[in-house]
Write a structure and sequence with these properties.
Elements (H helix, E strand, L loop, with lengths): L1 H11 L10 E6 L4 E7 L5 E10 L7 E2 L22 E5 L6 E3 L3 E4 L6 E7 L8 E10 L5 E6 L6 E6 L5 E10 L7 E2 L23 E5 L9 E2 L3 E4 L5 E7 L8 E10 L1
Antiparallel strand pairs: 1-18, 2-8, 3-4, 3-7, 3-9, 5-6, 5-8, 9-10, 11-17, 12-13, 12-16, 12-18, 14-15, 14-17
The structure holds calcium ion (2 copies).
One calcium ion binds next to loops.
Length: 261
């Protein structure tokens, strides 16, 4: 009986790209933290936030959820909101963005949809730490969510071991967020120039990229495209992102499978 049960479980496990039952599949899409909370029109929501984000770069500067004192300006997710502050989006991440900070009340939601949270940074991919947001819907019980400092840019996958061989395969299509409704596949477009503000300068724009462990180290980012066999030099959490200078207006997702060889 026991052998029969084990065989049934194995048969039900999806096979990976080498035919082994050892695979993880994730979706790498819009760079926002997905709270899983659905808002309806007319809902009341309050958000109280705490925590610290290291904003990346060479100066070890940090921010709380209220952000710095100035408005962020051009190139940031919400130019009119405070730089590095906690922000949100309801449903459509291209249009329905809301400033939040450490203590916000939305009396009457005007649109319905999933609540996304993020950090108002022009280069969120190098951030560490995060904000803890306690979200209360219609005077219910607050739900706490940890919003990573990278604002959902990186999608975590399995932990990889140094010296082992892994294979990544990716399919799917994203809309890169501009007015022209242009799209990309995991291979990406032409290479981004190093000074254009893309997370991985020199690699194809809108292509699938990854890092292992500390995402504040830009020189550790690597291009994946639609297929990559790689052997990590160090052990750590494998994370995926899209090589975009403004990833927060993207829709759709790449489907990424990771297998240990
Ligand atoms: Ca940053
Ligand atoms: Ca974009």
């Amino acid at each position: 009986m026991r052998g029969g049960l084990a065989a049934a479980v194995l048969a039900a496990t999806p096979k990976n790209i080498f035919g082994h039952a050892d695979v993880q599949t994730i979706e790498v899409g819009p760079s926002w933290y997905n709270t899983g909370i659905e808002l309806k029109v007319g809902d009341k929501m309050s958000v109280k936030a705490s925590g610290i984000v290291d904003i990346g770069g060479m100066y070890d500067e940090v921010s709380g959820p209220d952000g710095w004192k100035e408005a962020a300006g051009d190139g940031y997710v919400m130019p009119e909101a405070k730089r590095y502050s906690l922000i949100g989006a309801i449903g459509n991440v291209k249009e329905n963005r809301i400033p939040l900070g450490s203590d916000a009340v939305l009396k009457n939601a005007e649109v319905a949809g999933r609540l996304y949270l993020g950090v108002n940074d022009h280069d969120p991919w190098n951030n560490k730490g995060g904000y803890v947001a306690a979200i209360t819907l219609n005077d219910g019980t607050p739900v706490k969510k940890f919003v990573p400092g990278h604002g959902g840019f990186w999608v975590p996958a399995l932990a990889v071991e140094a010296g082992k061989k892994y294979v990544i395969e990716a399919t799917g299509e994203i809309d890169i967020g501009g007015a022209k409704k242009e799209k990309s596949t995991p291979k990406g477009w032409d290479a981004a120039a190093k000074d254009q503000g893309y997370s991985l300068g020199g690699a194809p724009r809108y292509g699938l990229i990854a890092c292992v462990g500390d995402n504040s180290k830009l020189d550790q980012y690597f291009y994946v495209g639609d297929r990559l066999e790689f052997t990590p030099k160090s052990s750590g959490a494998l994370k995926f992102g899209v090589n975009d200078h403004c990833p927060w207006d993207n829709t759709g997702a790449y489907k990424v499978s990771i297998a240990k060889k």
